[in-house]
């Protein structure tokens, strides 16, 4: 039996994009804020719509999560009461106390890693450059949570 050799073409994206200005417009990272690309009304609409969708989904997922946690806790209590499971409450208390101690320890340190600080700085810069978009998103998010 003969071995069939497949030949593959390799696409060099760096060379491809040099000859295609539309590619750079669509996929190139922009150096400016979205305020330079869109007018105020468009930014408000984009921010509002994405904010409303996010708020609406957040509300639905929040209700689902609360129902799941509450229902799980309820079933656990029934199983404990009927004797299907036994909960070692002393062990639970010890674990809760350990968690409290760790939270106190981390809170007293008050040190932020450089990676987190740089990400926070990037977010703050983005929010300052896109105030209108951010405002529309916040308003839409609140409307989505209320609906």
The pLDDT mean sits at 76
In total, the number of strands is: 0
Give the helix level as a range of percent.
over 70%
Number of helices: 6
Radius of gyration: 26 Å
Q: Provide the structure class.
A: mainly alpha
Largest sheet: none
Residue fraction in strands:
under 5%
Termini distance? 67 Å
Oligomer: single chain
Shape: extended
Uncertain stretches of 5 or more adjacent residues: none
Kindly give the count of domains.
Answer: 1
- Order of helix and strand elements from N to C terminus: HHHHHH
Organism: Mesembrinibis cayennensis
Membrane topology: Multi-pass membrane protein
Main location: mitochondrion
Subcellular location: Mitochondrion outer membrane; Nucleus
Please give a structural write-up:
It is a single chain. The protein has helices at about 15-20, 20-25, 40-80, 90-110, 115-130, 130-145. α3 packs across α6 (about 130-145). The protein has one domain (about 5-25, about 40-145). Helices cover about 75% and strands about 0% of the residues. The N and C termini lie far apart (about 65 Å). The chain is an all-alpha fold. It is built from six helices and no strands.
SSE topology sketch:
Layout: H1 13-18, H2 21-27, H3 40-82, H4 89-109, H5 114-129, H6 131-146
